[in-house]
Amino acid sequence: MDNSTPDARWFAVWTRSRQEKAAAAMLQMLGVQSFLPLKSELRQWSDRKQAVSVPLFGGYLFVRMNPTKDSRLQVLKTHGIAGFVGNGTGPVPIPDQQIDDIRTVVARQIECTVIPILEEGDRVRVVRGPLVGVEGRLLQSNSMSRLLISIEMIQKSLTVSLSREDVELLDRSADRPVDKNPCWITPNQNSGMPTRLAHRVTELEVSCQDNSQNLPIK
Length: 218
Hints:
2 domains, 37% strand, 12% helix, Alpha-Beta Plaits, mainly beta, 5-stranded antiparallel β-sheet
């Protein structure tokens, strides 16, 4: 593939479970430019602790290609890749600036956490703090959000304040408005993978913290 042309764009691909590194290595052998951002994690073994490199976005990596000239089939046939991330019209390109920003975070080894972008009305579950396990709807998707807890039989609700970092996204409810830009993958043959993703790469946000200095992260 000629991914050095001006028309080449970045795309996200969905990988099979724990196949991110194998897929990236295979793409490199095929001459396809790819980017697999990694982060270091400390793992506890039976007799020692060891720092290991794990994918920053589990289940995803990025490829650079010209969709009008390059064959998507070559990427889809690569071992470990399940499909492209996109919508009903096909793979959707990712702006170069977003990839560059992630490269900056990874290169500078800035501590970061991957969290889903939450929208008002999303069903969420509290994962830490005194309300752990409580489920409700998100009322405000800023740094300090409010959780709506409803008792529908008596049509009463109460709200509590909490940090968005303390909740996880549940499946978006079927009574929410239909997404105008749904995310679909182009499945690999016989992959057995579902065609609807639970979340989008474009809905992943990197929350970063630099203990030595504050660096602007877009």
